[in-house]
Amino acid sequence: MRGSKKQTLHSFWIMALAMGLVFMGCRNKTQKNQEPMKVSEQLHNSLTDVEKEQGWELLFDGESFKGWRGLGRKDVQTELWKIEDGTIRKLNSGEVPSMPDGQPMEGGDLMTVDTFDNYELYFEWKILKAGNTGLKYNVSEELSQKFGSQYSALGFEYQLLDDSDTLYAGKLKPSQYTGSLYDMIAANNADVRPAGMFNSSRIVVNDKSVEHWLNGKKVVAYEFASPHLDSLFQKSKFVDYPGFLEKRKGHIVLQNHKDDAWFRNIKIRKIESGS
To answer: How far apart are CA 231 and CA 246, in angstroms?
Structure first.
């Protein structure tokens, strides 16, 4: 009997060990099968089948400047703008080469060739410590060159800033921080990720209604031709530019600023008027 009990106990432990090895093998296999799925979920500058059905279009393919040009130019200033690791990178001023005579190169904004009226725009961006730049919309190239610089946009700006940096503490208006309609409407409850990390942003323009979104939260809402917007415009630095406040079919513009900035997953969905 004792021998039989020992034999039974020995067999039990062998079976338990075998089942444990089988379980671990299945677990490892499952983990390996899941890894490609995680990678595929992180593909940038591409559209899912659902997004295609919803009417989304890529404004940046991750490999070229197709669909973009410099404002006031026929092509892109590749001394200032680079395609880098699936992003559009704006080089900081220290990395931009000088002219042959040693003078600084005159920079310029990067804008879409096409213009847009009613749409939902999505983009991801990152800046470094104390970084400052912006994305502009409702931009008229003609108005920009008439009242501003030959190569810089005048338009509504979605501000992009390293909000928490001490460089800006006490020096800026509330409407000059991330997500704001620059110099007019301050972002509400903006949650900016630390410098060096990508943020996600959306701009929705539907007839007169406009929304700014930051990392999944709506931070600004306003209407074209509203008394509220006009009152803020009258106090802004744009007040001396006739026609600035009018809604138009405009370009999307990445601002040429002195700081590094990266953009990816730039896509747009046109909205039927009033939908």
So the answer is: 14
